[in-house]
Predict the structure.
Amino acid sequence: GEYVKPFTPEKAKEIIMSLQQPAVFCNMVFDWPAQHWTAEHLSKVLNGKQIRFRMGMKSTDTVPQFETSCSYVEATLEEFLTWNCDHSSTSGPFIDYDYSKFWAYADYKYVVSLFEDKTDIFQDVIWSDFGFRGRNGRESTLWIGSLGAHTPCHLDSYGCNLVFQVQGRKRWHLFPPEDTPFLYPTRIPYEESSVFSKVNVVNPDVKRFPRFQEARRHVVTLSPGQVLFVPRHWWHYVESVDPVTVSINSWIELEEDHQARVEEAIARMLVCALKTAEDPHSTRAWLNPTEVEETSHEVNCRYLNRAVSAFFDHYRTSKTEIQALRTNGEHMKKEEFNMHNNLMEVEQTDSQNLTSGTVGEQAACPFGPDLVPVLPSSEDPPSETGGMFKNDGKDFVGKAGEHFDKLHCTKKQRMMSGRENEIVEQVASNSTMAPSQTFISTDDLLDCLVNPQVTKIVAQLLIQGRSL
């Protein structure tokens, strides 16, 4: 008979909206027409359309390859495949890029823009199978890369993420939101909705970033036909481990996004103001190539005001929400300063508790062969020349597959320190200067001012001030 999917749309959505850790959905997209969206197929559909590729180095540098340091070429998918298959190019847009030294990445391509004259293709992507009615390719983004193509480690300010792997495999390095202080967050280069890490997580400079060793890495290699769920604010570094990779993703809006937009508007105003004042003529050095909007102070003021107004418009029908903001004001200082404090390591008994849940807890757990949790990795990160280019494909879901039956889904309780001054220590942990250095750059100041913990507090203060 017809194969039945392991989760109904309603159950899948319930899992996505409640799950606090990354997980891989299996056997959910076998009937999607988009499973045939290989690079070869898309090259025929696009029929010579030019796409922008980001060109990066296959290197083992400890400095992340941000988009501001990459070069770019305009090419067709056919030209990309020729360069990728022949490992050389005697003519065309890739002629200056030695395949042995460079990777190419057509990243962050909005499907609605790419296929603007072929709207029927939007129906090939069926996110409604995960409970998001009406969501399809129109709300999706396409990623096509060669071996070694990657995005530097970052977190997305808005929503959670569903990623469908179509062709080839990608390795994901994920870190929980609580590990933010250990990832040394920065807003340079600036991109709305992306907070970058100063650390190259596959080749970290632990002398410069010592606290990174405290971060809890979760690793999964995503294969074709699988869908990865990335919860809100989980850090991720994503790398292609096969000659050609194709992925389709969609960011799912969340209730928390309304305040997050205010936080992003604050970061935008501060970054643009200080960096423009520092040097009005070199925005390209700090503004990500994806950012094309005007960055004048007047525009950014309007942007912030629109974000705050939108927040109140959303909650206007619920007086209890606004009242809660007022009530919480007196508690905010203590709660906010504790929110991201160093979390005490989970005691060894926690690992024992994973298998000792009650019968009721285990019965409610969605994990199984069709939903596999991404577990913390106990291994060193694979290097770009070792683990990435010599991957044997045996590390499916970071060894979680063999352990799924032992897990239960109660959210682990974490003990939090009550020392208010620890936020200062965390923000200060971003500073990479030696004690003897006294010069503080604009970027050093911005790393403190627009630290995610700080912008969250400022956003709440702004909102509370307007609601009183």
